[in-house]
């Protein structure tokens, strides 16, 4: 059950005369010491996670020389990690979609909304020969039919059927055959409509996206809208998301990332590297010598579950 931290957090702030929060401890217990400069939203997540894990802690949120955690946790370089969670997702997506593309004579179709224009501009610099399609507000199906040449296929069928109206012709729309895969860059409010439309026409084309495609979803079961789509995650995150019902997918992932940060901080402070801990947001064991690479896998959304690529 989620703590309601508004009152707890307000109560704790009363005792910030020394700019720190300290949980009840005894002299024999080890204390997890944290120095983090961040937003109120993230402070609340951190305190809640510490309390839920019954961690003995001392946290200073006001030291200007401490580690700074941006408000957008998924796009922030968490302490000890090499890159942000979403940047790690983008890396595996780019490798799988563009660099490992087995179809020499086919293009990748990148379908995006205005919100992701900066990401698309970077992709255009690296992969200028692929096809980019800006999805605008309005009738999505009309736009999708146009980019897949569905209207042209229908027109040809109608012309052919006029030749002899006595002939019964079975027909299913044919799409263009020069697309190897589709990369979706859009939020949940758009994707939950757009992806099923693409799936109804593009049967033998692989779909890819980051987790941003479902961040606003409140129900894990709603991810069935993205059946057949490959998304970079870990089995631990998938399992935990499937059991959460009170928050959006994004809010839950933020909590998982904060828990990773706190656990790794504990490993460093207490020298627990021999426990071979693997974070929820990654697949590699924590080591002292290097920043942490997540090495994410691609998981395919299916009617029953996620399947690893």
Secondary structure layout plus pairing:
Layout lengths: L4 H10 L5 E3 L9 E6 L2 H13 L4 E4 L6 E2 L16 H15 L7 E6 L4 H10 L4 E4 L5 H8 L2 H12 L17 E7 L2 H14 L4 E4 L19 E5 L1 H8 L6 H22 L26 E5 L4 E3 L1
Parallel strand pairs: 2-3, 2-4, 5-6, 5-7, 7-8, 8-9
Antiparallel strand pairs: 1-3, 9-10, 10-11
Helix pairs in contact: 2-9
What brief labels describe this structure?
309 residues, alpha/beta, Rossmann fold, four-stranded mixed beta sheet, 9 helices, disordered N terminus
Describe what you observe in this structure.
There is one protein chain. The protein has 309 residues and is α/β, with parallel strands linked by helices. Helix content is 36%, strand content 16%. The protein contains nine helices and eleven strands. Helix 7 (188-201) links the parallel strand 7 (179-185) and strand 8 (206-209). The longest helix is centred in the last third of the chain and has 22 residues, at 249-270. It is elongated and about 65 Å long. Residues 1-5, 13-19 and 152-163 have low confidence and may be disordered.
Major sheet summary line: 7 strands, mixed
Using the 3D structure, state the CATH architecture of the largest domain. Answer: 3-Layer(aba) Sandwich
**Oligomerization state:** single chain
What is the tally of helical segments? 9
Overall tally of domains: 3
Main structural class: alpha/beta
CATH topology assignment of the largest domain: Rossmann fold
First-last Cα distance: 33 Å
In short:
Helices cover 36% and strands 16% of the residues. With 309 residues, it is α/β, with parallel strands linked by helices. The longest helix is centred in the C-terminal third of the chain and has 22 residues, at 249-270.
């Amino acid at each position: 059950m989620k703590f309601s931290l508004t009152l707890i957090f307000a109560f704790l702030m009363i005792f910030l005369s020394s700019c720190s929060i300290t949980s009840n401890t005894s002299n024999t217990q080890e204390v997890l010491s944290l120095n983090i400069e961040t937003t109120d939203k993230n402070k609340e997540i951190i305190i809640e996670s510490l309390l839920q894990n019954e961690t003995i802690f001392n946290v200073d949120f006001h030291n200007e020389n401490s580690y700074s955690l941006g408000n957008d946790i998924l796009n922030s370089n968490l302490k000890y990690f090499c890159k942000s969670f979403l940047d790690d997702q983008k890396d595996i997506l780019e490798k799988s979609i563009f660099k490992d593309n087995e179809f020499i004579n086919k293009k990748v179709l990148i379908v995006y909304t205005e919100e992701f224009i900066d990401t698309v501009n970077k992709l255009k610099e690296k992969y200028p020969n692929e096809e980019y399609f800006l999805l605008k507000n309005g009738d999505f199906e009309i736009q999708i039919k146009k980019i897949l040449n569905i209207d042209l296929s229908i027109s040809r069928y109608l012309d052919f059927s006029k030749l002899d109206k006595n002939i019964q012709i079975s027909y299913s729309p044919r799409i263009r055959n020069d697309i190897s895969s589709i990369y979706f860059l859009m939020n949940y409010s758009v994707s939950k409509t757009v992806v099923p439309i693409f799936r109804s026409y593009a049967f033998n084309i692989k779909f890819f996206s980051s987790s941003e495609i479902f961040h606003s979803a409140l129900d894990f079961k709603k991810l069935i809208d993205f059946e057949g789509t490959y998304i970079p995650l870990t089995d631990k995150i998938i399992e935990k998301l499937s059991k959460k019902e009170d928050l959006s997918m994004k809010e839950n992932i933020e909590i998982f990332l904060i828990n990773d940060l706190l656990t790794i901080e504990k490993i460093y402070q207490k020298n627990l590297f021999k426990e071979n801990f693997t974070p929820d947001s990654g697949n590699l064991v924590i080591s002292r010598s290097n920043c942490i690479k997540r090495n994410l896998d691609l998981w395919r959304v299916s009617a029953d579950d996620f399947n690893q690529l």
